[in-house]
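Quick question about two entries, pasted in order.
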Amino acid sequence: METYDLHDSIVEQIEYLHDEKKVQLKLELCQWRKKHDTTETEIQEGIMTFSVVELLQIEPPSFLINSNEILEVRINAEDGSIEFILMGSHDVGKVKILSQDVTWEGR
């Protein structure tokens, strides 16, 4: 997770695959703060997949995931969970995920 600077990136959709214990975040990864070579684009679409998910929590429960800007990402040192603070159309929401692994697949 520390490889990417997710600030200003967009969460398009969250899909919870209960039987597979996976959570997939469809993202528009904004790389404007990342030093990259000129062959990479500033915006990259892709899927961040969390595997062996033990917890997926969205607060408030009524928070709608639909092209939400990532304001902040926090990694909890105690349990290793990741919290995404997202801007909604009228409020701010939090998505908390506890998993054993995370991968990124760009399109």
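Here is the second entry:
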Amino acid sequence: MVPKANEQSRMISFFNCVATLMQSNLLELFKESLLEYKNFICMKMEAKHRPKFIVKFISRHNQLLPVPSFEEWEYGVLGVVDMLVEVSNSFPRMEAKIFGDWDTQEGTPAPGTTLKPTIDPAEVQTIKTEITNSFREQTKGPMAYVEVYNQHSFLFEGDNEDTMDVFIIEERTWDQMVEQVIKFHNLSQDMGTTFEPKTLIGIFDIHCDDLIRNLGNKASELRDKFLDKMIHTLHVQLKE
């Protein structure tokens, strides 16, 4: 039974008992949430409940890069654990909710007005380590998947106009230039059908549609540059 307002000592004892019970429940809820989150990230749940982190691959500086990077995703994934700890340490005691012992301007609790669940930092760090190891292991799948694009790595060099120009002006016979035109034309046409624009690998939803489109455009650009070179060569020969 709730003590009367003038029974200060009993009132303090009552709220301390309530706080102890709330802290116990809060700690249990925290541990269950942390375990569920670990299982969620480590793919120990049913497929329909697994995460899907969208990662786009782009070509930049002559290499394939994931966007956002896996490091950025990892930082965000581990940040959820830190957020769980922070939130669990910010729950107000019952008397704080009743009497409003909060800083209304800052929206923060006054000293002694929050519950203090006994969260073990070592236990939290163990969970974070398991999540980190699982996450990093799962990044290997997407990186292996995009290795297939490396067979067209010469198209990545198209990001550098100087490199492309050097490739174009190399000495070639007429037949060799025809071969290059056919090669890059076929490549530009086949790029969209050879590769899957989207695929799910573990916890990552891989999007390569922009990459495929850009590589196709680079192939078309190289084809057109070789056609321009052929036309120029033909004009020079006709003038001779």
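Reply: The first strand starts at residue 53 and ends at 60. The chain has two domains: 1-58+82-138, 139-240. Hope that helps.
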